[in-house]
Design goal:
Length: 192
Amino acid sequence: MKGGVEMEDERIVELFLSRDEVAIARTSEKYGGRLRALAQHIVGDRMVAAECENDTYLAAWNAIPPHEPRGYLYAFLARITRHFALNCCRDQKRLKRQAHIAQLSAEMEACIPAPDDTACQLDARELVRVLNDFLATLDEEKRNIFVRRYWYLDNVAQIAARYGISESKVKTTLHRTRNALRDYLKKEGILL
């Protein structure tokens, strides 16, 4: 953009809503690097990450409208990018990464109800609300560690290096946070 001024999310969403293709260019300028980095962290391949980023723009084009992510555009895009990246891992049978994802899934199974378990089904929006409420109860360090592990799929060593703490502290924090999440979900009436 001229003068290096980034367009506000609200304006970018307006461009999407008016079906102006400039929306994609502005989105790429503002968030392209972050989206590509997120995908590359998951898939481990620059070319595949670039494909995930491009697929995100098309998916956003098709999803806006009806969605209007004015106040959370990056989160909206990151969720789409993460979805594409995880699908690429499955589709390309990246065994090492798949094992990592399976390990993360197993860690969370004890906390979050399985979506195919009819006794545990609940509205996805309600689960998101409860998870966000839970994350808001955590101090910044615990929340960051939890999000780096289960959203960005960082391994324990990466988290420890990022925050300058021991791997043992990361493991302990994750274990205690998963237990606290399980207790929080029970308190909210979500069956496990």
